[in-house]
Every structure is written in C-alpha cells, then in structure tokens.
Write a structure and sequence with these properties.
The chain is an alpha/beta fold and about 950 residues long. Among the domains are: about 15-150, no CATH class; about 160-325, P-loop containing nucleotide triphosphate hydrolases (Rossmann fold), CATH 3.40.50; about 330-395, no CATH class; about 420-510, Arc Repressor Mutant, subunit A (Orthogonal Bundle); about 790-935. The chain is about 40% helix and about 15% strand. InterPro entries: Apaf_helical (IPR042197), Disease_R_plants (IPR044974), LRR_dom_sf (IPR032675), LRR_R13L4/SHOC2-like (IPR055414), NB-ARC (IPR002182), P-loop_NTPase (IPR027417), RX-like_CC (IPR038005), Rx_N (IPR041118).
C-alpha cells in the first residue's frame, strides 16, 4: 500500500496504475480474460497520465482541454473504487472447509463469488468503454497539441513593476529592512559578497532590494537591476545586464550566444566595483549560470539576490549564511498604517462604524503587504456600510471574493504554487481541509498525507521521514508558516496564511479536490461528486438545503459536533476519517464503522467514547489515533486483528493479548502494564521488530508476587526491540526501573530520544555513553559533578532535561566545564543546587532554564563570576532563571538579577530573558507564589 501515490492534478491516477500493476502480479489469480482487460486499462491510463501531468504544468488551458482533463480525472476515481472492491474480494476469499458442511458452504460461497465477479466484470466493461471514449475525444480535440504548442504560459506584464517604481513616501515598514540589508552590503570588505533577501511572495522583497539599490548604487562604478522569471531566457538577462553596466560606452550587443555574453561580461567587470541585483531567483541552476558571468574581483563588488526559496538563498550566499536577510511580515502598527493610508489617508479619517471590521481584515492579512494593499484596493470599491465590509472580511480564506485586485494578488502568489512539483502541489492543496488559523502539527499532517497516499517512499527514508521532507520543503518555499520549533530547530507545527488559504481553496475546488462546508460557506464541486469533505458547523441548515452525495467521499473531516451528523453507513468509499473536537459524539455513531472496508486512517477527538468491537474488521487501517479521547473505554480485543496497523496512538490504555499479530506496528503509545496485563503480552511485545516508537507506563508494584516474571519478560522484549528499530522510548513509572536499565543488552544503538519519568535514577547507566545517536534525554537523576561530566561527553546530545531531587549537602555548585556538551542546544535543569558555566562550555546552546539559590551565591561565586557564567554563552537566544529567595535579603536578590540582566544584555543574540522569583515571602512580598519578570 505504501507505493500508491495520489495527486491533485491527476486524481488518483498514479495510485490506480500501481494497483493495476499489482493486480497483474502473481499474488492475484485471475482468469485470462480479466487479466487482458486489466492490462488494457493500465496501458491506456498510463498514456493518459503522462498527458495529465503535462497539462498540470500549464498555467492556463482552453475550456475544451480543461473539460477533457476533468472528465479523465473523475474517471480515475471511479476506476479505483471498482478496483479496490475487486482487490478486496480477491483478498478476502474464505478458506474452504472439509466434509458435507464444508461442501455446502463452499457451494454457496462459489455462487456468491460468481455473482460478485460478474458484477465487477460488468463494471470494468463500462469503465473500459469510458476510457476508449476518452481516448477518442483526446484525438478528436487534439488535446496533445495544447501542450506541444507553447504560448499558454506567457505573462504579458511583469507584475513587479509597481514595486520597482514605488515612491518611498507611499511605503510602510520599509526603512528597517532596507537599512539592515545596506549594513550587510556596505561593510567595506574588498571581495565579492552575495546578500540574499528571502521571503514569501507579496512580502516586498523586490521593493526592499530596489530601495537598497537606489540608496547605494552611486557608490559603485557599475550597476544593474534585472528580474527573472520562473524559466528565464539567460541570453536576454545577460544582454540586459551588459546594457546597464556599459551605460553609454557603446551600443548594446545583439549577440544570441550565451557563452560570448558571459565572456564579455566577465571581461568588462573584472576591474570594476559593481552592484548587481538579481530579483526573483527560482532555481539554483539559474543562479549558477548567472554567477559564471559575475567575475570575482577585489574591488568590493556586491550582488543582491531576492528569492522565495530558503535553499536558493543559502546557495547564493554560501558559505556565508549570515548574509541571508529573512524578510518578515509587517507588525500590527505598520499594517494598520499601510491599510488606512491606502483607503482614507490616515487612521483618524476611518469612519467609526468601520474601525472594528478594519482591524479584523488587517489581522487576516497577516502582515503581508501585498494582501493589505489588495484588500485596501478592493474596499475602495465598496460603500462605507459595515455589512459590505463584513462580507469582504468573511470571504478572506474562502476563495469566494472575485475582484481584479484579488485576482492580481492570486496570480502573484500562484507563481510559488506553479513552481511546485506535482506531489507538493497535492500536499499544499490538502491544507484547504483545515479551518482558518488552525495550528497543524507536523506529525499529524504527515500521517494524514501518508493515509491519503500523497507520500511515496524514496531511497532509505521511510514514509514518515519522506513526509517530513515534504513539510520542510513547503516551509522552505514560504508557503506555510512555522509557528513552533523543536529543540533541534525542526518545525513542530505550522499555519496557513489566510491569503494562501484563499488561493489553495480556489484551486482545490477547481480541481474538485476538496469540498468545504461551514456555517458561513458551502463550496460544492461543479462535477457533483465529492472526494474530500471538510465540515465545520453547529447545525445542518446548509447541508439540508444542498444535500451532499457521500458515496464517493474518500476523506471526511468533521470539526465540532452537530446533532444529526451524516451517518457513516453512507461513506462506503471512505479512506480517511477525522472526528476533531466532537465532544458529544455518541457511541452509536461508530456502530457502522466496520463497513468502511477501505479505511486507512481513523482519528477521534472526543470524550466518553468506546470503540466498537467491529474495529477489527478494518483490515486496511494503517493509523489509529485516539490520543485526544478523554475517558476512553477499554480497547476492544479485536484491535489485535489489524494486521496493517502501523500507528497505534492511545491515552494510557491496556492492550489485549495478541499484540504479536500486529507485525508492521511502528508507533505504540501510550500503553499501560499493570497487574491486569498478562506476562505473555510482554513477550509478544518483543516480536514487534519494526517498532520505532514505544511509550509505556510501568505500574507493576515491586511487591507483586509475579514481579520477577514481568521484569524478565520486559527486559527480554526491550532488548530485542533495542537491537531492531527502536528509536524513541518513553518510560513512566512510580517504581524504580533499575532492573531494566542496568542490564540492557545489547545496547540500543539506534536510540535517538529517551524519556524516563516518575522516578529518580541513582546514576546514569554506563552503556548510555555509547549511544552515538542519542539527541534527546529527559531523566530524573541524582545529579553530582561526575553526572555532568558523563553527560557532557555524549556525542550527539542536543536536548537535555535533568530533574534532581537532591545533589547532596556537600555540593554547593555544579560546574559545566570547557568542551562539555558540544552539541547541546537546549538545557533545562531543575534541582536545589547552583550551576556555573565555564568559558568554552555548551558552545552552541540556544535555550537555558535553570535556578539560582540566592543564599548559596557567595559560596558558588568562588567558582566564577556572579552571573554564573551566562556571559560565556555567546549563542544563547532564550534564558529562564528561577531565583530562589529563601534565606536571602532583598539587596542580594536585586544584585543577582542585575548581574544576570547585565550579562544577558551583552550577548550577541540579545536573548529573551525571564526571571522568576520563588519563596520570596521573607523579602516582604505578601504572596509566596513565584513572580515572573519577562525581559528582552
């Protein structure tokens, strides 16, 4: 199933072709006639798929070609439904029983099989007729000529012209980024420097580059400003640069030879101080070609590049990544200033009844200058009635508002979308399934993509890793916005800017890819068939007025619960079911879930829900996510029959016996082992050799009579998992787990993250030092100086959280020495002891949280400066210090905080500082609660 990949542009054509190929394999036994039919379908559809992918790369299509494309795409969905039914019938043929009873049941089943196969054969004949007709129309309408004769992708007007000719007086928020870029450019270095400006479409990169160019161009001997397209004609680009740098020194060349133009440019610029702006670079290949022509010299020459793509920016400025300027969204004040200036001249002139709705519109623009200007231009055509402005506000993100200014903005934003490969277009369009401002967690989104068939394994990467690459690429191309980061810099969650959501919603509806229904909008497809349905509502008035045929729905998202929800029995083609936030979901709603034979993904977020026993009938289920189910009843025993399940995500649940049947399981969280758990289940756990993630809550009391059997089985199983694929392990227990950690053998060398909660380790086990892949460690341990020394030598550790109940009365201050924790980026220490950082310690640390015991400061300061070595942490970006005030005086606390504040202010990254006071009642405060002081 992992090889089946779907696409928005071609429906499920690639997935369908993979399944047809599988049917022709040896695993499926078909009679010769059916095999011929399947081979015919595969050959014809393969040819159509090639053409569909070429059409998907065209920005505009004539109506006849678009109609043919849409019909073929819809046909591919129908064929896959038929093929899935056929494959299920072949896979689920019952075993024959012996004897007279077996003969009778076998005869009845044979009749049923003949009827079923006859029905499927008839369907295939009908679909074959549709394919033949589609092929004839392709020839009659000469669809292939649409692609072969270009011309449809020409954009007659450069849409960056307004940015190139904008007057400074009409710009807002431009001075700070302009001056920052000028600092990077004008630093006196004699060699050639390349400064990259990176940001999403419509953010103002061209405007900033142009303003920098106007300010400093006169300092250079020669200057040029050129803008690229997605497929630039390099001959035209080089001739433009030549004509600008030569000024009046001769006629511009008419050569069409790229090599000659490069040679002429290099020769002319070799002894001149030049400034060249290359606006809107889309590929590293385009940059490399241009770079050949811009000769290296020692005259202090500068090149400024603008791009929407982070990797392009790094490539251009490499190896000096500090020469990359990431352009940010406008802040709230600048956004308001730009919006009101465009409409009324100033905010003071805005009518009172429009103030509130204006602020809401500005908020939805999300600081994107192009969006603010576009909305302002649109609103100048509206009356000054609040109702008209509210209508515009509600339309943002829905793709419903049509206006020349909005269409112009969408065309600019579409450039980023058009430049995506097919699989990333599909993944981006899928985000239109989620409501506005929805925070989408990376792992959740990747699992959804996998279930939909959007992710295809590549090389040695598994589907999760490949899906994360897709996610990162969309971040890198500025098409989704990161909102939360992990310790290692990986983006943990994202949001979609409302203007991007508006764009992809339009395209998703046009492709009949997603259907969205909310209380304020219902976007139904023109073809009548719904493939992916996203519902967000409190009542069913919209659906009653325009009922939806659910037979063909493959994905169903229901955000929030409503009485009278569409029954699951009507969704016979469903692959993905996500019930998000349906707090009052009734158990009876899930009664028919066993009929969803194609279901691959099930996620439920609800309270007081119990899974039906029929869950075991979902033989295609790959992902079961019940993490956000409060008061979830016991898991049904049939869950162990889900032989294709890879992710089982539950909130502290006992597993039934038989887990060894789930041999493809990769993610298991969070299971409970207590006195009701059989010891055989722990043995079975060791057979899950594909398991990468295990989260387990150990509740076997040390006084339990079978304690030794439980422990031996668990130690054995964990040893097997550790020597197989285990990478992420979380152990929670109120009881000591020394029996497990001390004898762990062989060493789990693939382990990357280890979390141990609920009890204190007496020491760090010796074998942990050899974990060369361990990047994340969160443990409770009695921390001594030797503990830090052991952990400081861990070769790959990037995140460390240490909780220490006591360090021993003899220890007043722990010292982190030079060259310890070489890779650590985030360090959290909780314990009643001070900590000092020596120069050269934690050289890449970005986030630090620790505490200072004030009355121990005099003792601790014998080891170093009164700021505890914060001044040595040059890479620090975030600092949290918990100041324990018990037994100290006000002046001592204030002096200590001043020293910390002073040290932090001197660091190059100006870290965000938060000071929290604890136990300050003796300092004259009325409350013993911590008092937080946040600073930047």
């Amino acid at each position: 199933m992992d090889g089946f990949m779907a696409s928005a542009a071609t429906g499920v054509m690639r997935s369908l072709l993979a399944k047809l190929g599988e049917l022709l394999g040896e695993d499926y036994k078909m009679h010769r006639g059916m095999r011929r039919e399947i081979a015919f379908l595969k050959d014809e559809l393969s040819s159509m798929n090639v053409l569909l992918e070429r059409l998907a790369d065209s920005e505009t299509l004539d109506p006849q070609t678009k109609e043919w494309r849409d019909q073929v795409r819809e046909m591919s969905y129908d064929i896959e439904d038929c093929v899935d039914d056929y494959m299920r019938q072949l896979q689920n043929e019952p075993q024959r029983h012996s004897g007279i009873t077996g003969f009778f049941f076998g005869y009845v089943q044979k009749v049923k099989d003949l009827v079923t196969r006859h029905e499927i054969a008839e369907q295939i004949q009908e679909l074959k007729a549709r394919i033949v007709e589609a092929s004839h129309r392709r020839k009659r309408y000469k669809i292939d000529d649409t692609v072969n004769f270009g011309g449809i992708n020409v954009i007659p007007v450069d849409r960056r012209l307004p940015a190139l000719y904008a007057e400074l007086g009409g710009l807002v928020g431009i001075s700070v980024p302009r001056d920052e870029v000028i600092k990077l450019v004008d630093d006196g270095v004699q060699g050639v420097k390349v400064v990259s400006i990176v940001g999403c479409g419509g953010l103002g990169k061209t405007t900033v580059a142009n303003q920098v160019y106007k300010n400093i161009a006169e300092k250079f001997d020669r200057q040029a400003f050129v803008s690229l397209s997605q497929n630039p004609d390099m001959v035209i680009i080089f001739r433009s640069i030549l004509s600008q740098v030569k000024k009046d020194e001769g006629d511009s060349t008419s050569s069409r030879d790229k090599e000659l133009l490069i040679s002429e440019l290099r020769d002319f610029l070799k002894d001149k101080r030049y400034l060249i702006v290359i606006d809107d670079v889309w590929s590293t290949q385009a940059w490399k070609t241009i770079k050949f022509a811009l000769v290296e010299n020692t005259c202090g020459s500068r090149i400024i590049v603008t791009t929407r793509i982070g990797t392009i920016a790094k490539s251009c400025s490499s190896p000096f990544h500090d020469l990359i300027f990431e352009l940010r969204m406008l802040n709230e004040d600048d956004s308001k200033r730009l919006f009101f200036r465009r409409i009324f001249g100033s905010e003071d002139k805005c009518p009172h009844q429009l103030k509130e709705v204006s602020v809401e519109i500005i908020k939805k623009c999300g600081g994107l200058p192009l969006a603010i200007i576009t909305m302002a231009s649109l609103l100048t055509t509206k009356s000054y009635t609040r109702a008209d402005w509210l209508k515009v506000c509600d339309s943002i993100g829905s793709g419903l508002e049509k206006n020349s200014d909005v269409e112009e903005m969408n065309m600019i934003l579409s450039l980023s979308y058009n430049h995506l490969p097919h699989h990333l277009k599909t993944c981006l369009l899928y985000l239109s399934m989620f409501p506005e401002d929805y925070v989408i967690k990376r792992d959740y989104l990747v699992r959804r993509w996998i279930a939909e068939g959007f992710v295809s394994a590549h090389g040695r990467r598994n589907l999760e890793d490949e899906g994360e690459c897709y996610f990162n690429e969309l971040i890198n191309r500025s098409l989704i916005q990161p909102v939360d980061f992990q310790y290692d810099g990986r983006v943990y969650a994202c949001q979609v800017h409302d203007m991007i959501l508006d764009l992809i919603t339009c395209k998703a509806v046009e492709e009949n890819f997603v259907t969205v229904v909310t209380n304020r909008k219902q976007m139904l497809p023109s073809h009548g068939k719904v493939h992916r349905l996203s519902l967000e509502y409190h009542d069913l008035e919209n659906l009653r007025a325009n009922p939806i045929v659910t037979t063909h729905v493959r994905s169903l998202n229901i955000f929030r619960y409503s009485e009278g929800m569409l029954p699951l029995s009507g969704f016979r083609s469903l692959r993905v079911l996500d019930l998000d936030g349906n707090e009052n979901l009734e158990n009876c709603y899930l009664e028919d879930i066993g009929k969803l034979f194609q279901l691959r993904y099930l996620r439920i977020k609800s309270s007081n829900i119990t899974l039906p026993e029929r869950i075991g009938e979902l033989q295609c289920l790959v992902i079961l996510d019940l993490l956000n189910c409060l008061n979830l009843g016991e898991l049904p025993t049939s869950i162990v029959e889900l032989r294709h399940l890879k992710w089982l995500i539950v909130p502290r649940m006992n597993l039934p016996d038989g887990v060894g049947n789930m041999q493809v399981l990769e993610f298991l969280s969070l299971i409970v082992v207590d006195y009701t758990t059989s010891t055989s289940l722990l043995q079975e756990l060791g057979s899950l050799t594909k398991l990468r993630t295990l989260e387990l809550d150990w509740r076997i009391n040390p006084l339990h009579r079978d304690k030794k059997t439980y422990e031996d089985n668990f130690v054995s199983s964990l040893g097997k998992l550790g020597s197989s694929n285990l990478r992420y392990l979380t152990l929670i227990s109120p009881w000591p787990l020394d029996f497990l950690l001390e004898p762990w053998s062989p060493t789990p060398h693939l382990l990357q993250e280890l979390v141990i909660k609920g009890w204190h380790l007496s020491k760090i086990p010796v074998w942990m030092v050899s974990l060369t892949n361990l990047t994340y460690l969160d443990v409770e341990v009695k921390v001594r100086q030797e503990t830090l020394q052991i952990l400081g030598d861990f070769p790959a550790l990037q995140f460390l959280k240490l909780c220490s109940n006591a360090a021993g009365s003899e220890v007043r201050c722990l010292v982190v020495s030079n060259n310890e924790f070489r890779c650590l980026k985030k360090f959290i220490f909780v314990g009643w002891v001070n900590m000092m950082f020596k120069e050269g310690a934690v050289p890449v640390l970005e986030t630090l949280e620790f505490q200072i015991i004030v009355h121990e400061v005099q003792t601790a300061c014998r080891f170093g400066p009164p700021d505890f070595g914060i001044s040595h942490l040059s890479t620090l970006r975030n600092l949290v210090v918990n100041v324990h005030c018990e037994g100290s005086r006000v002046k001592e606390v204030e002096a200590l905080e001043a020293a910390i504040r002073s040290a932090a202010s001197m660091l190059p990254n100006y870290p965000t500082l938060a000071l929290h006071r604890f136990l300050e009642s003796e300092l004259g405060f009325s409350s013993g609660k911590p008092k937080a002081i946040h600073e930047s």
